[in-house]
Design a protein that fits this description.
Distance between the termini: 14 Å
Largest sheet: 7 strands, mixed
Number of domains: 2
Keywords: Lyase, Metal-binding, Zinc
Protein name: CENP-V/GFA domain-containing protein
Number of helices: 4
Radius of gyration: 19 Å
Strand content: 35-45%
CATH architecture of the largest domain: Beta Complex
Bound molecules: zinc ion
Strand order of the largest sheet: 5-6-7-8-4-3-9
GO molecular function: carbon-sulfur lyase activity; metal ion binding
Family: Belongs to the Gfa family.
Pfam family, one: GFA
Length: 314
């Protein structure tokens, strides 16, 4: 079985032939967190709009290059006992409540309140069950994404693709100092990351813990990584072979630590402080691979960057 997808692979929808069926209206999709405690049907109306929010707060809360939303009328979440709501802000939506699962920290989206009444839900599309999204809806979403607050976009997603992927991280390789932290600043770190190793992951865990289309990880030697604030830091076993550092206050996922790589820690580029990432990333940062593409959501289209597309992890 090949672990690679064709270099031309850009979307699971493309491999299914992109059958266009009648434009969907009032469909229900399923919002389901990683632990399954939170599961709710959400109605997508013909007026529902989709967008990628690049604002700083969304990037930091979702720990991703951008957040992907579908805006729907508020859903009754009263029976969902594992929901946490925390006030926040989004440059696109204004004052919002950010929502996540108290048990597994999956990100669910944000709610807008007007005159004391909840009115709109910005559904975090990374947490929507793939199987509940008909191809026709995925196709519609894919063609209609608006880019919101692009003026605040991160620089690192524009890093150049490179085929020269280093197989091992060693102290001799070039390193780049960055700092970063969670959305509430209860967890802060400094790291000397390997700038030639940005890896995009589309697995369900990365998607649901971020609510985004993908997360981006870059390795760092453990000796080059330090927590400068760990007031709300927790280390959670998220798979049989790895753990993630998370913030217990704001739900941000900050790193992956693999059991098989005790000397290495993988911070998420989505939590880097913008001011510590070079403005001109073209000579200093490189993107090397798309992994776990088999779990990529059908509404997302990969950039035509010619990078290797792995079905599974490394
Ligand atoms: Zn959960
Ligand atoms: Zn935003
Ligand atoms: Zn936090």
């Amino acid at each position: 079985m090949s672990r690679n997808l064709l270099a031309s692979f850009r979307s699971p929808l493309a491999s299914r032939g992109e059958q266009r069926s009648p434009s969907p209206s009032n469909l229900q999709v399923q919002l389901k967190c990683n632990c399954g405690k939170l599961c709710v049907a959400v109605t997508i109306t013909s007026e529902s709009i989709t967008g990628h929010c690049h604002c700083k707060q969304c990037r930091r809360f979702h720990v991703a290059a951008f957040a992907s939303f579908c805006v729907v009328p508020t859903v009754d979440l009263a029976e969902q006992t594992s929901i946490i709501r925390r006030p926040g802000a989004c440059a696109t939506a204004g004052r919002v409540d950010r929502l996540w699962c108290a048990c597994c920290f999956s990100v669910l989206g944000m709610e807008v309140t007007e005159s004391g009444r909840r009115c709109e839900l910005y559904l975090a599309l990374g947490t929507v069950e793939d199987a509940s999204i008909p191809d026709s809806l995925a196709l519609k979403w894919r063609e209609c994404f608006t880019e919101w607050t692009l003026q605040e976009c991160a620089t690192w997603p524009a890093a150049l693709p490179t085929m020269h992927r280093a197989r091992r991280v060693t102290p001799q390789r070039a390193q780049m100092p960055v700092s970063g932290g969670c959305a509430c600043n209860g967890c802060r770190f400094t790291a000397n990351v390997f700038p030639g190793e940005l890896q995009h992951c589309y697995c369900k865990l990365c998607r649901k813990l971020s609510g985004a289309a993908f997360q981006t990880w870059t390795p760092c030697l453990a000796e080059g990584f330090a927590w400068t604030n760990q007031e709300s830091l927790i280390l959670v076993r998220t798979t049989p072979h790895g753990q993630r550092h998370m913030c217990r206050i704001c739900s941000s996922t900050l790193t992956i630590v693999y059991d098989s790589q005790p000397d290495t820690i993988w911070p998420a580029a989505g939590c880097f402080d913008d001011e510590t990432v070079p403005l001109d990333v073209s000579t200093q940062l490189y993107r090397v691979i798309h992994i776990c593409c088999i779990w990529m959501q059908s509404w997302y289209t990969l950039p035509d960057d010619k990078l290797p597309r792995l079905k599974y992890a490394g």
